[in-house]
């Protein structure tokens, strides 16, 4: 049963409204590009008129970019950077069906598009991953480096999370989408800013702490909040801490 329902459990993409009219926000546009296997992908790009860098935002497994325009605009204004968020295959207006290798290729394609659009080098871009998107961001950082890797309530591995939710099943033998971020992060030694909450009922706090411990970075910070759930917005003090962390990394 786990093998049969794995895709729907790991990738519960919300039902996409292909005709959704996105809000008109200045310096904001819909973009399309293709993954390595030709899959057509969709994203939202918020351009800053005096950008001092760029952010690639990799979202979680239960959302798509059609509801993220205001968030992109806020990040663009707060950090004075160009911001791209994109949908993995099977999400939003992106074609295809999600699986680990394909989702990681989609992240690579989004990073290539952002590099070509902004002229920023991959290792000068902030890679920001939330939940499942954290695994994508870790993969990209391990391959290319990053100005900073920002991990928001992500996990050591998908196997670890699945085993926590289903302790009576041999998850490690059955799961195909594994996302071993704790192994991949060993290849990234740049700045790491990570946030997690003890109240998270989707990704256990221990899994996030183990991922942070696996990082070889000499410049890393872990923000642990008692009341932060998996989908609770960050309190303003976390953004302030990230502001300070980024300033100290420049």
Could you please describe the fold and organization of this structure?
Residues 54-173 form the AB hydrolase-1 domain. It comes from Aureliella helgolandensis. By secondary structure, this protein is of the alpha/beta class. It has helices at 2-10, 69-79, 100-118, 132-144, 158-165, 171-174, 181-184, 205-214, 236-249; strands at residues 28-34, 40-46, 54-58, 82-86, 126-130, 148-152, 192-197, 220-225. It contains 9 helices and 8 strands. It has an 8-stranded mixed β-sheet with strand order 1-2-4-3-5-6-7-8, with helices on both faces. Helix 8 (205-214) links the parallel strand 7 and strand 8 (220-225). Helix 3 (100-118) packs across helix 4. The mean pLDDT is 92.
CATH architecture: 3-Layer(aba) Sandwich
Helicity range: 25-40%
Mean pLDDT: 92
Quote the CATH topology.
Rossmann fold
Overall shape: it is globular
- Strand portion, in percent? 15-25%
CATH class label: Alpha Beta
CATH superfamily: Alpha/Beta hydrolase fold, catalytic domain
Rg (C-alpha, Å): 17 Å
In total, the number of strands is 8
Spatial strand sequence of the major β-sheet = 1-2-4-3-5-6-7-8
Structural class: alpha/beta
In short:
This protein is α/β, with parallel strands linked by helices and 250 residues long.
What's the arrangement of secondary structure elements?
Elements: H1 2-10, E1 28-34, E2 40-46, E3 54-58, H2 69-79, E4 82-86, H3 100-118, E5 126-130, H4 132-144, E6 148-152, H5 158-165, H6 171-174, H7 181-184, E7 192-197, H8 205-214, E8 220-225, H9 236-249
Parallel strand pairs: 3-4, 3-5, 5-6, 6-7, 7-8
Antiparallel strand pairs: 1-2, 2-4
Helix pairs in contact: 3-4
Pfam family, one: Abhydrolase_1
Protein name: Aminoacrylate hydrolase RutD
GO molecular function: hydrolase activity
């Amino acid at each position: 049963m786990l093998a049969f329902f794995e895709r729907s459990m790991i990738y519960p993409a919300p039902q996409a409204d292909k005709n959704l009219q996105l809000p008109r926000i200045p310096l904001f546009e819909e973009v399309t590009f293709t993954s390595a296997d030709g899959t057509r992908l969709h994203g939202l790009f918020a351009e800053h008129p005096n950008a001092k860098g760029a952010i690639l935002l990799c979202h979680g497994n239960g959302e798509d970019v059609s509801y993220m325009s205001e968030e992109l605009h806020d990040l663009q204004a707060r950090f004075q950077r160009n911001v791209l968020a994109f949908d993995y295959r099977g999400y939003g207006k992106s074609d295809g069906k999600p699986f680990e290798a394909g989702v990681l290729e989609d992240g690579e394609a989004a990073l290539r598009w952002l590099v070509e659009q902004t002229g920023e080098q991959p290792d000068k871009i902030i890679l920001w991953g939330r939940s499942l998107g954290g695994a994508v961001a870790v993969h990209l950082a391990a391959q290319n480096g990053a100005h900073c890797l920002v991990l928001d309530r992500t996990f050591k591995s998908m196997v670890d999370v699945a085993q926590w939710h289903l302790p009576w099943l041999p998850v490690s033998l059955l799961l195909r989408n594994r996302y071993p971020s704790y192994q991949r992060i060993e290849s990234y030694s740049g700045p790491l800013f990570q946030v997690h909450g003890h109240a998270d009922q989707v990704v256990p706090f221990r899994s996030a702490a183990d991922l942070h411990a696996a990082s070889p970075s000499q410049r890393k910070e872990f923000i642990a909040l008692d009341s932060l759930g998996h989908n609770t917005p960050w309190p303003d003090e976390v953004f302030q801490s990230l502001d300070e962390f980024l300033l100290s990394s420049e």
